[in-house]
Every structure is written in C-alpha cells, then in structure tokens.
Target: DCD2B protein
Amino acid sequence: MSSRGLALAPPAKTVVVYRNGDPFFPGRRFVVTQRHFLTLEAFLNEVTKSVHAPLAVRNLYTPRHGHRVAELGDLQDGCQYVAAGFEKFKKLNYLHPGRKELHGTRTSEVGGFFSPPSTAAGILAHLGCFYCSVFRNGDLLSPPFPLLLPKSTPLQWDTLLATLTEKANLCSGAVNKLCKLDGTQVSGEEDLVNGHYYVAVGNEEYKKMPYFELLVPQDSACKMLWYVD
Model:
C-alpha cells in the first residue's frame, strides 16, 4: 500500500480545563487523542464528569477572551479552556486561581499552570492557615489540588483523610494515607510542612513517579503553586 494511503492519527494534545465562573478551581488536565475522543461532544461528556460540573458541559471557551471552541480539532496543545453549559462565558481570572477579576495580565493562555509569587505564603501564614498541594497517587494527568487548613483548629487525622478523599476522588476509593514525594508516609500533623507537596494514596502502594517534574511549571522561579481554596 502506498504511504499516501495511510492516514496518520493526529498527535495527542494536552489541555487544562477550568469551570465557568469558579475562581478557585485549579484546573483539570486532559490528554486528548482521536483514539479516546472521536467528537467534541464525547470530550465534553468526559469533562463533565472529571471537573464535577453541576450541569452538563456543552461549550469550551478560551479563558481570557471567551472565544468558543467549535470543533475538537480546534483544541491547541498546551492551552487552557473554560468548561460551560449553555450559560454565557463568565470572564474571570482563571489563570490566577482565587482572584475574581481579570485586570489585564501578561500570563499567556498557552502552556502550563499559573504559578503565583511566593508572597502568597506569607499572606496565608499571616491569616493563620496551613496550606500545601497534594498529588493523586499514580496520576500524571491531574494537577495537584490545594489543601488549606486553619491552624486555630486542632487537626483530626481522620477528618483530614476524609477531606482528602473528597478532594482527590481517587479511582481506588478513599484516601488512607498521605505520603511525601519520596514515598515516606506522613504519620501526623507534626510531619506536615507549610507549602510542601504530598501524595494522596488509597489502599494501594505508593507509586513513585515524577509528579513534581511533570505537573509543576519548571519555569517558575520558586517552583511552587499557591492555590487558595
């Protein structure tokens, strides 16, 4: 058969999707291939489930200007989008989680997540909050989610695991332990360090993977994601 007769499958594209009107949602990463999604509608159905949208997702928009995505092939590798139902696109600062108004920013729509300056660390510490970012065990497609806890309230470990279970939504079920990036299990509140990264693990063994290297922007000066949830 002539090589001209062989149709090459389009390359995979990695995109990040936010929820329309939600300034605190950190975004969900998707790998889009023709093998998994034949149509835009099929992809929107998957987005609906993955971002836990209250209503079915029927439209995708660019986060800064609200341009609607008409076809699956219009998705650009490395870009971010906003998932919406039939409601209008809500113009928020999606690339800066936790900030509600868009005041003009140099942050590009292309490539990775926004990494706010580390001054947020001092702000949250001043407010009396403990915060860290948590990866999902074995998941190299999803960004870390934020964990914010008031220091004024004694930390109950069972309550923390329940909170992690709700946020992580692991395929394996409930979160049974929290591990450091080297796989060491965190045994209690005294092992937690402000601003650090951890991995939520279920009944399975900890999976040592390059979570930080692949899911945290490498061009960030401090290489930290500060999310306020």
